[in-house]
Structure to design on (945 residues):
């Protein structure tokens, strides 16, 4: 709770600090803010409290996800240094918008009321629409913002429609009361088509937010057009918040109607896995590949969701942590490469192993982690997800499908590794990397490997 | 404790080697590998060879709430595999002395790091630790082959990597399933897996999930298509690591994690596996006869030999299993020796084509002798190591079904054909342009070949030294399979 207030206040402070002549102070300022939020957030551990007359519950689930999202943002921001050197006038606003998006994300993992979920989604999304278009002179960035905004508001409308239908059927927005209402309805054996309709429409709305297929069409274009720093934010924090909110919704509100939504979610999961992985194979741009890869990872997280048992939440938590640390490192390297080589195609990475061993190594570890190879966090992410799903032996086919697609994943993740180590450097210069970015990359790599050796650090939290 | 030391020493040494600039890295790597060999000899001296139980055990909690532990230990089979690894790695490092690889510190660090993975596979007594180590061994060899390999290396090693990952992900799925079947809070310990009683139906598909992973690694026909290209395109040392040690991971995996875990699954499919293995023997041998590239020839001969090992261990009798174990050692020694000799020839003549070589005996007497011994060991002539393994394996297959044995026995004849044809073409006849100024072995080269040749005769003349180590473990394994 304190973290929401602090984030809002810090966001406003940052906005005003943006007027400062010396842009150098902005980054340290926002990093300190995030560190404070991270620390304060931890104080709520094992201390479940409800706020605003049952609108918001900060329990361990919320604290854990808030922690991961704050840390993700914290580790992402060091890569924004180029903006400072360009003396971009709007830097303060960008930082503020990210903090505001984080406010929305925290609401999405702690909501107790569907209205709060809606507000959280909106706060986060509106900030993201602006950030997507923050490269004002780039046509692609403008296109991304417009596309994201139009599609996003459309699906927000759909979400609201679902919420209203649920309200019509149960007479409440509170998820605990919804759960109770449907349980009593089911005990009387009443099939309530309005209620089921509401669930499915709400599912569609949230699926859009986590770019699950078949509601993913916006993702590749938006990811590609958005400035890389904010793409990274979009594919980590926004996705984590979306999946966490999704799972909470299904468990806390709709657990009793499991049979009604389960087939739909299985279909969404399968489509997401297939489209994400197959789509990534045919890309020539690394950044677009990462967009499809983020779709496929949404699929793996949805697998943990549809497993729907006691290990689902920790699987999702661990998977988000593993996925975020690897993605940020990958996007960080991409940003450094892109800033200098003006390209986000695979070829831009040629010879990086020779010119910048650190960047190449970090990228390799991230790719192996995203591919789910042991020694990296991604392996245990997949492991926990597969275990959660296999607890129901009837779902074996889904694991087999995911296994085959994970092998496909290796194919496209390795392409950049091959470009870095095995293709000649084609007279590219060494990429200039400041020491702060290098330090962050090392931290991220250590984190990825640490979670790959001692996964209990995160998986035992919930 | 000694097992943990064996496991982590190469990884630590790898970090050390990484820090050394220039060609000094190979010296440090060699010393580190020798230390590792000494450690394994110490483990052997403290090993009770009468017992089939796990020894030198160590078990630490890893993911405690999930019942996954860092559990390592050795029985006779593991110990022999560990000894094979620690014996071969220093020789492989030494064999690279004449090469000036670029970034030698990274190259040798990767070799040592891979050794940790290999040892880990052989000593892991927890399913997930096994899987973990299985992939840890793969990553370094991929980079060694893909960065320091030949012209087609990128495409070829890519296929190799994706192929093996594809197989091993199925293994992971099977392990997760088995783990969830263990009672209580679940455990992935090897003994917990052995105690499972699963329906014949689920054993049947688990068998395939595990078998695909192991069969790709060995490789067994028809999962072998990655192998000849990868062996040919990899640098010599990577080929030695792949063929000498890494393929034993697949066979060891079958012994430890397939046969005892799903015995009913095995009894449903063993005949098919034997048929595949025997097809592989004949098929690969015939292709080997037609090869003109030395490395490809030995690569195909390796498929044939591994086919016989696979056939032998799936007979599930003592001869077959013991033969499989001893043949793993023999094959490792012979194939590393042969690939090293091919490397020597290639580095002096710049060709591996049989037709452009010839007459090397006239200049290089020592090389000819060593080559002949290793080659005869590979063919399986009595008094050499190959004879012991092939005899036991074939007698195992004969016991299983005489017809299979008869066809599998072709391997001896066919091996003699392609091996002697190779020797004839390369070593005898008139000198060619390439072999005109061929020089005999250097000191370093002898230092690699002499230990290998000694082992060829040691295993050939006194196989009991090794068979007695694995016998209690094999019997223990059989009693679990026939429970």
């Amino acid at each position: 709770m304190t973290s929401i207030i602090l984030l809002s206040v810090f966001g406003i402070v940052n906005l005003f600090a943006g007027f400062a002549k010396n842009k150098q102070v902005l980054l340290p300022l926002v990093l300190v803010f995030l560190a404070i939020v991270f620390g304060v957030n931890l104080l709520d551990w094992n201390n479940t409290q409800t706020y605003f007359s049952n609108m918001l519950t900060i329990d361990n689930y919320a604290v854990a996800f808030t922690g991961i999202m704050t840390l993700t943002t914290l580790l992402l921001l060091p890569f924004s240094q180029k903006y400072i050197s360009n003396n971009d006038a709007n830097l303060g606003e960008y930082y503020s918008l990210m903090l505001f998006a984080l406010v929305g994300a925290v609401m999405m993992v702690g909501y107790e009321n569907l209205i709060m979920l809606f507000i959280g989604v909106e706060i986060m999304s509106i900030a993201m629409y602006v950030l997507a278009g923050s490269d004002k002179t780039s046509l692609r960035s403008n296109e991304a913002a417009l596309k994201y905004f139009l599609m996003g508001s459309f699906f927000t409308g759909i979400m609201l429609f679902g919420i209203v239908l649920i309200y019509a059927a149960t007479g409440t927005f509170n998820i605990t009361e919804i759960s109770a209402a449907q349980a009593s309805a089911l005990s009387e054996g009443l099939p309530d088509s309005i209620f089921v309709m509401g669930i499915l429409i709400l599912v569609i709305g949230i699926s859009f937010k986590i770019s699950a297929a078949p509601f993913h069409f916006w993702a590749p274009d938006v990811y590609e057009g958005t400035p890389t720093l904010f793409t990274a934010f979009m594919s980590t924090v926004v996705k984590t918040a979306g999946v966490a909110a999704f799972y909470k919704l299904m468990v806390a509100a709709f657990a009793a109607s499991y049979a009604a939504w389960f087939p739909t979610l299985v279909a969404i999961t399968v489509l997401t896995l297939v489209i994400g992985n197959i789509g990534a194979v045919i890309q020539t741009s690394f950044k677009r590949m990462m967009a499809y890869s983020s779709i496929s990872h949404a699929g793996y997280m949805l697998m943990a969701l549809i497993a729907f048992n006691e290990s689902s939440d920790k699987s999702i938590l661990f998977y988000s942590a593993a996925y975020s640390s690897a993605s940020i490192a990958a996007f960080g390297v991409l940003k450094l490469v892109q800033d200098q080589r003006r390209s986000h195609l695979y070829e831009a990475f040629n010879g990086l192993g020779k010119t910048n061993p650190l960047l190449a190594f970090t990228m390799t570890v991230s790719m192996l982690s995203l591919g789910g190879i042991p020694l990296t966090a991604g392996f245990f992410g997949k492991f926990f997800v597969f275990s959660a799903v296999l607890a129901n032996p009837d779902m074996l086919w889904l694991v087999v499908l995911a296994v085959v697609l994970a092998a496909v994943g290796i194919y496209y993740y390795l392409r950049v590794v091959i470009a870095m180590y095995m293709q000649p450097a084609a007279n590219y210069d060494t990429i200039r990397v400041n020491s702060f970015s290098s330090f962050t990359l090392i931290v991220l790599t250590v984190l990825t490997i640490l979670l790959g050796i001692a996964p209990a650090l995160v998986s035992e939290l919930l | 404790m000694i097992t943990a030391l064996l496991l982590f020493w190469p990884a630590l040494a790898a970090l050390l080697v990484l820090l050394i600039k220039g060609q000094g890295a190979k010296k440090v790597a060699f010393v580190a590998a020798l230390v590792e060999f000494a450690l394994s000899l110490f483990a052997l001296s403290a090993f009770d060879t009468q017992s089939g139980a796990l020894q030198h055990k160590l078990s630490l909690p890893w993911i405690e709430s999930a019942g996954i532990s860092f559990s390592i230990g050795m029985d006779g089979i593991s110990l022999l595999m560990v000894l094979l690894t620690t014996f071969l790695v220093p020789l492989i490092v030494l064999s690279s002395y004449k090469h000036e690889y670029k970034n030698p510190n990274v190259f040798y660090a990767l070799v040592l790091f891979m050794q940790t993975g290999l040892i880990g596979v052989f000593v892991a007594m927890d399913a997930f630790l096994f899987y973990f180590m299985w992939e840890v061994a793969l990553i370094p060899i991929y980079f060694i082959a893909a960065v320091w390999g030949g012209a087609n290396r990128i495409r070829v090693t890519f296929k190799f990597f994706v192929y093996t990952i594809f197989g091993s992900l199925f293994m992971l799925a099977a392990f997760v399933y088995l783990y969830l079947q263990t009672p209580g809070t679940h455990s992935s310990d090897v003994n917990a897996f052995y105690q499972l009683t699963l329906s014949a139906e689920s054993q049947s598909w688990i068998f395939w999930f595990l078998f695909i992973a192991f069969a790709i690694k060995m490789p067994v026909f028809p999962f072998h298509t990655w192998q000849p290209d990868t062996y040919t395109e990899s640098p010599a040392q990577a080929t030695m690591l792949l063929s000498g040690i890494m393929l034993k991971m697949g066979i060891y995996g079958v012994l430890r994690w397939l046969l005892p875990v799903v015995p009913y699954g095995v009894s449903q499919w063993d005949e098919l596996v034997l048929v595949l293995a025997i097809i592989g023997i004949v098929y690969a041998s015939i292709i080997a006869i037609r090869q003109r590239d030395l490395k490809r020839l030995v690569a195909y001969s390796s498929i044939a030999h591994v086919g016989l090992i696979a056939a032998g261990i799936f007979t599930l009798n003592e001869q077959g299993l013991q033969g499989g174990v001893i043949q793993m050692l023999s094959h490792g020694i012979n194939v590393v020796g042969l690939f090293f000799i091919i490397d020597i020839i290639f580095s002096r003549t710049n060709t591996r084509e049989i037709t452009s070589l010839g007459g090397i005996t006239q200049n290089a007497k020592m090389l000819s002798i060593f080559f002949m011994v290793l080659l005869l060991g590979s063919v399986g002539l009595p008094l050499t190591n190959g004879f012991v393994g092939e005899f036991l394996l074939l007698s195992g297959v004969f016991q299983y079904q005489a017809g299979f044995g008869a066809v599998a026995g072709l391997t001896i004849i066919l091996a003699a054909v392609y091996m002697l044809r190779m020797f004839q073409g390369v070593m005898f006849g008139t000198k060619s342009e390439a072999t005109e100024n061929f020089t005999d072995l250097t000191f370093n080269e002898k230092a690699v070949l002499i230990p290998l040749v000694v082992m060829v005769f040691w295993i050939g003349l006194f196989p009991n030294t090794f068979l007695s180590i694995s016998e209690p473990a094999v019997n223990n394994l059989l009693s679990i399979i026939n429970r």
Remarks:
- Chain A touches chain B at residues 368, 371-375, 379, 382-383, 386-387, 390-391, 393, 396, 399-400, 403-404, 406-407, 410-411, 414, 418, 421-422, 454-456, 459-460 (CB under 8 Å).
- Residues 139-170 of chain A form the longest helix (32 residues).
- Residues 314 and 460 of chain A are 7 Å apart (CA to CA).
